[in-house]
Specification:
Order of helices and strands: EHEHEHEHEHEHEEHHEEEH
Number of helices: 9
CATH superfamily of the largest domain: NAD(P)-binding Rossmann-like Domain
Structural class: alpha/beta
Number of domains: 2
Distance between the termini: 36 Å
CATH architecture of the largest domain: 3-Layer(aba) Sandwich
CATH topology of the largest domain: Rossmann fold
Strand content: 25-35%
Radius of gyration: 19 Å
Helix content: 25-40%
Strand order of the largest sheet: 3-2-1-4-5-6
């Protein structure tokens, strides 16, 4: 459990390993991401010992403790501490103070969420399945959201990469190449569900597509390569 030296942008910090934190860590690792996990309870960390290399049992969530664990090297940190609101706020504030680009924090009430937003965190109100959804969203920088409809079928929202800019749906031929269906296109904050072969994509648009897990993974990889 020594200090990590990883600086990869795919490094994620998870503070608090309850049900949600465990699910999130597991799914990120499955997606090939590096994870730093911290918790006061060593038994909770042990549940991840076969999945996560960087496990830190901490006594408190102050700035020095988080920095020593390598949280400052993470591109994204998720604070999963639940009922202990004070520790949740301290962990969030210290992660932001360390300069972590994206800090996502779990809120247990609207008031708690408003405070987190005020200090600069992205707020979530998760259940266990939300851990899977967030992990799949985080695993691709071009993926904005993820909604699982069953074990092997989902809908995702992705940002259109520069490589698809100015090309029509017909030219991209998503169904034939990747086995996905385009449901909607969001252009300049306006959603359009009337997708035709002549619909033209623009860099930065949001594309809502559906398909099985294998097809969606292939499309996300292709979209990321064109970024």
């Amino acid at each position: 459990m020594g200090k990590t030296t990883y600086t990869d942008p795919n490094l994620f910090g998870i503070i608090g390993i309850g049900r949600f934190g465990f699910t999130l860590a597991s799914e990120l690792v499955k997606a090939g991401k590096e994870v730093i996990a911290l918790d006061i309870d060593g038994a909770k960390l042990q549940s991840l010992k076969d999945l996560v290399s960087h496990l830190y049992q901490i006594n408190q969530v102050n700035r020095d403790t988080l920095q020593e664990a390598g949280i400052a090297e993470c591109n994204t940190v998720v604070v999963c501490i639940g009922k202990d609101v004070e520790s949740n706020l301290l962990a969030t504030l210290n992660a932001i103070d360390l300069g972590v680009p994206r800090v996502i924090s779990k809120a247990i009430s609207d008031d708690h969420g408003r405070i987190l937003e005020k200090i600069g965190a992205q707020v979530i109100y998760p259940e266990e399945e939300m851990g899977v959804r967030l992990a799949k969203s985080l695993s691709s920088k071009m993926t904005l959201d993820f909604l699982s409809l069953c074990d092997d079928f989902a809908i995702i929202e992705v940002e259109v990469a520069p490589g698809f800019d100015g090309r029509s749906i017909l030219e991209c031929d998503f169904r034939k190449r990747y086995g996905i269906n385009v449901i909607a296109l969001i252009h300049e904050e306006r959603a359009d569900g009337n997708i035709t072969p002549q619909t033209v994509l623009h860099q930065g648009d949001q594309l809502v597509v559906a398909g099985n897990d294998q097809s969606l993974e292939a499309f996300q990889k292709a979209n990321a390569k064109k970024a």
